[in-house]
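step=predict obj=Baeyer-Villiger monooxygenase n=508
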Amino acid sequence: MAEREHEHVRVAVIGSGFGGLGAAVRLRRQGITDFVVLERAGSVGGTWRDNSYPGCACDVPSHLYSFSFAPNPEWPRNFSGQPHIRAYLERVTDTFGLRPHIRFDSEVRSLRWNGEELYWEVETASGSLTADVVVSATGPLSDPKVPDVLGLDSFPGKVFHSARWDHDYDLRGKRVAMIGTGASAIQIVPSIQPTVDRLTLFQRTPAWVLPRADRKISGLERWLHAKVPATRAARRGLLWGIRELQVSAFTKRPNELGLIERLAKGHMKRSVKDPVLRAKLTPDYRIGCKRILLSNSYYPALTQPNVDVVASGLKEVRGKVLVASDGTETEADAIVFGTGFHVTDMPIAHRVTGANGTTLAEEWKDGMEALRGTTAAGFPNFLTIIGPNTGLGNSSMILMIESQLNYLVDFMRQLDVLGGKIALNARPSAVHAWTRGVQKRMERTVWNTGGCDSWYLDSNGRNTTAWPGTTAEFRKVTRQVDLAEYEVLRVPAARRGERSAQTVKAVA
């Protein structure tokens, strides 16, 4: 038979973080081995590879922040650090034999739907291929966002984002400006404060911070979890259950969060005695509206004599002088941006061209929307892991990822049952109905009513990021594919006959 002009696979997975590796494991366990994992870097890990800044750790308990099908009895702490999480993902890769499927240094440059052949044409940095199904697992925390600051290009010192930490640059003895007060910043500040000459924190909006109940997991606990799996499962179940009970306060009754606010204020008061500084650090919005942060060292670090808190965002850079929106000026040798990621405007969306000849970014110009957070109308056989409205404010994203992996597995099963060369395209009516339902429920949530401007909201002020329910509910609605929500696409009969003739000719 004549050699193929190009490589073709059943499934192409983009990304090798939790979503991509999880998809690879589930595909293999389903008996699907004709797939590749396209990774832009030279190793697995996704956001836990890219974020290696000082103090980087997870704010979800380790035993909940891991795959149910790959438990780890050896977690060293309640909240594990980046090195341990990255090592876990490397171990998952080896345990499930995923390395032969992974193509490193293969950043996806474009994806284009071929409506005649019903497959995706994939262009990568290492070559091209085609795939019946594409699973986009690039994640919302993969591409750093740096604000457009006047004069930044002329800054003579060092500039980098927290997710692209320059480990070759020594901050010791330097005047450092930390821009932002998100989850990364509150870990970086106490980690670098003892060694820098001066640290200036530019705080556009203060964050609510609660104590971090972290501790070392004892050897006895780890032994029990390894020898008696039921103890490990019970620990995970307890962690999950507590968080499920908290959901209604975030999604239906935000006023109940007042008690949590009092706990946060008490936590601040114990560490920050200066009333002026405490006033700067006290948010004016309902707790939970923005992501709640956990730290025992952030507030103490801000009270140190070599730290200044500027209660304003960075507006302009004039040489080495940084000017805040309130006019405050400070000199710096280095600027570290902890300003988040492109969450509501995923960069991968600009590279995906669907059945109508438009990109996913163009289709989402008025806001992201996908059926059950996974499939978009006009993009057949294209599934997104951690898609629109699948984010969480209080629990583990791994739970949401696994629910979407269940949906992926049933999606593949439906393709097999229907048989032949086919594709499933989400009906616009189904996508819009799903989105309307989600947005209706979103109206009562703390994210929409709490009085803040957060990264959960897109440029139109619509919350296209968070899931307004429990993880159990999401698992239920993604348990299986409802074919009534999809249009079944088949290769036209004429094309099938033409391809059959070509195949016979090639064999001859």
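step=describe
DSSP finds 15 helices and 20 strands in the chain.
step=end
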